[in-house]
Amino acid sequence: QVRLVESGGGLVQAGGSLRLSCAASGRTFGSYTMGWFRQAPGKEREFIAAISGSGGATHYADSVKGRFTISRDNAKNTVYLQMNSPKAEEKAVYYCAADRWIPVEVRTGYDYWGQGTQVTVSS
Question: What is the pLDDT of residues 34-84, one digit of tens each?
Fold first, then answer.
């Protein structure tokens, strides 16, 4: 059983930056691969990035590679998404997700999900 709570969403200007956080419950955080996803109205949920339990492996969607960075602090049971130069079309609800030992390249099938945090991008 894992509970996830996202925070850090809000309004950001195109060309600016924003950092999202996801806090997880429990004492086995290092056993879980963590992922970030987003969903815009009328669209399917989209994979963004994932990071392994140790932080030694990451995987990104091509659309965000070079602009977004996923990281984690296992001492704080927290995973982050640093968003640099977000685009207007990336306005969406952003979700974090967890799955025990799942490879970072697998972009679906996560068992645990947070409630989401809204990100709005303006010019």
Answer: 999 999 999 999 999 999 999 999 999 999 999 999 999 999 999 999 999
> Is 99:113 a contact under the CB 8 Å cutoff?
no
How close are the terminal C-alpha atoms of the chain, in Å?
40
* Strand stretches in the chain, DSSP E: 4-7, 10-13, 17-24, 32-39, 46-51, 58-60, 68-73, 78-84, 92-100, 112-113, 117-122
* Residue 31 three-state SS: helix
Instruction: Give the pLDDT confidence of 100-111 residue by residue, as tens digits.
Output: 999 999 999 999
Which among 19, 29, 66 has a CA at the least distance from the CA of 51?
Answer: 29
Phi/psi at 74 (5° precision): -70, -25
Measured in residues, the chain has a length of 123
- 3-class DSSP state for residue 30? helix
Instruction: Determine the 3-state secondary structure of 101 from DSSP.
Output: coil
Cα–Cα distance measured from residue 37 to residue 26, given in angstroms and rounded to the nearest whole number:
22
